[in-house]
Design brief:
Keywords: NADP, Oxidoreductase
Protein name: Saccharopine dehydrogenase
Strand order of the largest sheet: 4-9-8-7
CATH class of the largest domain: Alpha Beta
GO cellular component, one term: cytoplasm
Pfam families: Sacchrp_dh_C, Sacchrp_dh_NADP
Shape: globular
CATH topology of the largest domain: Dihydrodipicolinate Reductase, domain 2
GO molecular function, one term: saccharopine dehydrogenase activity
C-alpha cells in the first residue's frame, strides 16, 4: 500500500527501524506479537484506538505512552495497569502536554511567591508556515483529520469573570474571536473542550477566568 511504501521510505533513513502495516482493530494476533517484543509502546493512533493497544500492553506488561487526552476508556484501565505493574502515561504531547508543564511552571511560581491567579488563559495550536497555508482552512492536518473535525463540532466550557460559559455542540466555530498577542499574525481562537476541570487540576480555584483555547489562522472558523 501507499502507507507501507511511505513507511519503508522513512525507515530507510533510520537504523533499528522496522515498519509494519497492520489494522489494530482486526489484527489482534499481529498487534500482540509486536507489543510483546517492546519495552515501551508509544501510541500515536487516533484516541479511540488507544484502549485496544493499552489492553495489549497490560496483557504483556509493557509500558505505554500516548499524546492524547486521557479518555474515560483509558482511565477505566487504571487499576488493571497498576495490577500489571506497568505505567501508562497520557497527554504527553504539545497540547495536551507541554502546555500543562508551562502552565504549572507559571502557576507554581506565582503561588510560591504568595500570589494568586486571577485569570488563566492559554491558547495552543499547530499552525503551518504562512507560505503553506494557502488552502481555504489555512490549516494542515498534523494529527487525526477526524479528530480535528470532531473537535470543531463539539461543545466547550470555560469560566469568564466568575461566570460559567457553555458553548453547545455545533456552535464552537461561532464563538471564535480574534487573538492579537502575536503581532504580524492574523489569528483567531476558540474554547477547547472543558476548561473547568483545570481549576482543580492546576490548583487555581481562586481564578475568576479559566480558558484553554485552540489557536488558528483567521478565517478557519468561518470556513
Amino acid at each position: 500500500s501507499t502507507v507501507k511504501e511511505q513507511a519503508d521510505s522513512l525507515a530507510n533513513k533510520y537504523p533499528n527501524t522496522v515498519p509494519i502495516h497492520l489494522n489494530v482493530q482486526e489484527a489482534s494476533e499481529s498487534l500482540n506479537a509486536v507489543v510483546k517484543e517492546q519495552d515501551v509502546v508509544v501510541s500515536l493512533l487516533p484516541y479511540h484506538l488507544h484502549p485496544i493497544v493499552a489492553k495489549c500492553c497490560i496483557q504483556h506488561q509493557r509500558n505505554m505512552v500516548t499524546s492524547s487526552y486521557c479518555s474515560p476508556a483509558m482511565q477505566a484501565l487504571h487499576d488493571r495497569a497498576v495490577d500489571a505493574g506497568i505505567t501508562i502515561v497520557n497527554e504527553v504531547g504539545l497540547d495536551p502536554g507541554i502546555d500543562h508543564l508551562l502552565a504549572m511552571e507559571y502557576i507554581d511560581n506565582v503561588h510560591l511567591k504568595g500570589g494568586k491567579i486571577e485569570s488563566f488563559v492559554s491558547y495552543c495550536g499547530g499552525l503551518p508556515a504562512p507560505e503553506h497555508s494557502e488552502n481555504p482552512l489555512r490549516y494542515k492536518f498534523s494529527w487525526s483529520p477526524r479528530g480535528v473535525l470532531f473537535n470543531a463540532l463539539s461543545g466547550a466550557k470555560y469560566v469568564l469573570d466568575g461566570k460559567i460559559i457553555e458553548v453547545p455542540p455545533g456552535a464552537l466555530m461561532s464563538s471564535a474571536e480574534p487573538v492579537r498577542f502575536l503581532p504580524g499574525f492574523a489569528l483567531e481562537g476558540y474554547p477547547n473542550r472543558d476548561s473547568l476541570i483545570y481549576q482543580e487540576m492546576y490548583g487555581i480555584s481562586e481564578a475568576k477566568t479559566v480558558l484553554r483555547g485552540t489557536l488558528r489562522y483567521f478565517g478557519f472558523a468561518e470556513t
